[in-house]
Write a structure and sequence with these properties.
Helices cover about 40% and strands about 20% of the residues. It has helices at about 25-40, 65-75, 95-100, 115-125, 130-140, 160-170, 190-195, 205-220, 240-245, 275-285, 295-305, 310-325, 335-340, 340-350, and strands at about 1-5, 10, 20-25, 50-55, 80-85, 105-115, 145-155, 175-180, 225-230, 230-235, 250-255, 260, 265-270, 270-275, 325-330, 330-335. The chain binds iron/sulfur cluster (SF4).
């Protein structure tokens, strides 16, 4: 079982971001939120989570001690639990890292997004490239042996040189993990508004994909393998939490905007809905296609017998994509397939 806890507070809203988070919260509101989260955690059924992930927003804007206390008192984490917290570079200071270590956190995901100052400025980030690098080094110096960063490819105006330089500077940090997300123009963000007003021109698909290729090449040279469309890791440093989600495991979601999946029940921001056993099985089975492990029809038949009648049709569809050069073996995405994974997946969701 896995646990995701969402903290929807940010210093400012970044230009591209449509995640459930907002700026301008008061310390009292954040305190109250954490007390509520702690009480929800204290009410969980006893278990030891395989992974715990605090995402946001910027979780470290909060005093997380009551939440950590609830986890400890309930015995929800062990030495084997992968316990990740997302950090903003400006969160990184001695007191915060000390709070995380005492709370049992053993993995840090630092939201860097770019290592080019002009890009960071136009993204609305509040830190420079060298501040982000210093933050990562500080995380390491504090003894976090498992740490990585997030980057965004395809930002308007990013030149090939500056993107390559971002990737090289990133790998020079000695990361364990690197997520490289393709920019998505999310509706109602500042980026979306600027594009609609003609103030910003998005890169073409080819230009954006060329940056993903550069990322893959630089990370491969540095010893990283791409274990999911947007995620690269050194051997053994894959994010176990995200892998659990893609492999179809259960996870509890706590907090505003958090999603959860336990049995047939789905939660979003605490609101429960129930899916049918077949819908449940499809959802759990197909997202393995995003990973380097790929989608195994034998595994699907073994784990979700309810899907056995669908397998001949799925095999036909998969073989069709294989002939198009989008899949290889039985069945993993080819580099071309990763570019259109979402549309391949949509064929299985109908
Ligand atoms: S990208 Fe991160 S820091 Fe920026 S608004 Fe979104 S959640 Fe907040």
């Amino acid at each position: 079982m896995n646990l995701y806890v969402h903290f929807p507070f940010c210093r400012v809203k970044c230009a591209y971001c449509a995640l459930h988070s907002s700026a301008g919260s008061t310390p009292a509101a954040r305190r109250e939120y954490c007390v509520r989260i702690a009480s929800e955690i204290a009410a969980l059924q006893p278990c030891v989570f395989s992974t715990i992930y605090f995402g946001g927003g910027s979780p470290a804007l909060c005093d997380l001690v009551p939440v950590f206390d609830a986890i400890r008192e309930r015995g929800l984490a062990s030495a084997e639990t992968e316990f990740t917290v997302e950090l903003h570079p400006l969160d990184v200071c001695h007191d915060v890292l000390d709070m995380l270590k005492r709370g049992g956190v053993n993995r840090i995901s630092l939201g860097v997004q770019s290592l080019d100052d002009d890009t960071l400025k136009s993204m609305g980030r509040l830190h420079t490239a060298s501040e982000a690098e210093a933050a990562f080094r500080f995380v390491r110096a504090a003894g976090f042996v498992n740490a990585g960063i997030d980057l965004i490819a395809g930002w308007p105006g990013t030149t090939d040189e500056s993107w390559r330089s971002t990737m090289k500077r990133a790998t020079a940090l000695g990361l364990d993990h690197c997520s490289v997300y393709s920019l998505i123009r999310e509706p109602k963000t500042r980026l979306d508004l600027a594009v609609r007003r003609g103030k910003v021109l998005l890169p073409s698909d080819d230009e954006a994909l060329a940056q993903i290729d550069v990322a893959r090449e630089v990370l491969a040279d540095a010893g990283f393998s791409r274990y999911e469309i947007s995620n690269y890791a050194r051997p053994g440093r894959e994010c176990r939490h995200n892998l659990a989600v893609w492999r179809g495991e259960d996870y509890i979601g706590i907090g505003e905007g958090a999603h959860g999946r336990v049995g047939l029940v789905r939660t979003e921001s605490g609101v429960e809905t129930t899916v049918t056993p077949e819908e449940d099985a499809v959802e759990r089975a197909i997202f393995a296609l995003r990973t380097s492990e790929g989608l195994s029809l034998e595994r699907i038949a073994r784990m979700w017998p309810i899907l056995v009648p669908r397998i001949p049709a799925w095999r036909e569809t998969l073989e069709f994509f294989k002939r198009q050069g989008l899949l290889q073996d039985a069945y993993r995405l080819t580099p071309r397939g990763t570019e259109v994974c979402d549309s391949i997946l949509s064929d299985f969701l109908v």
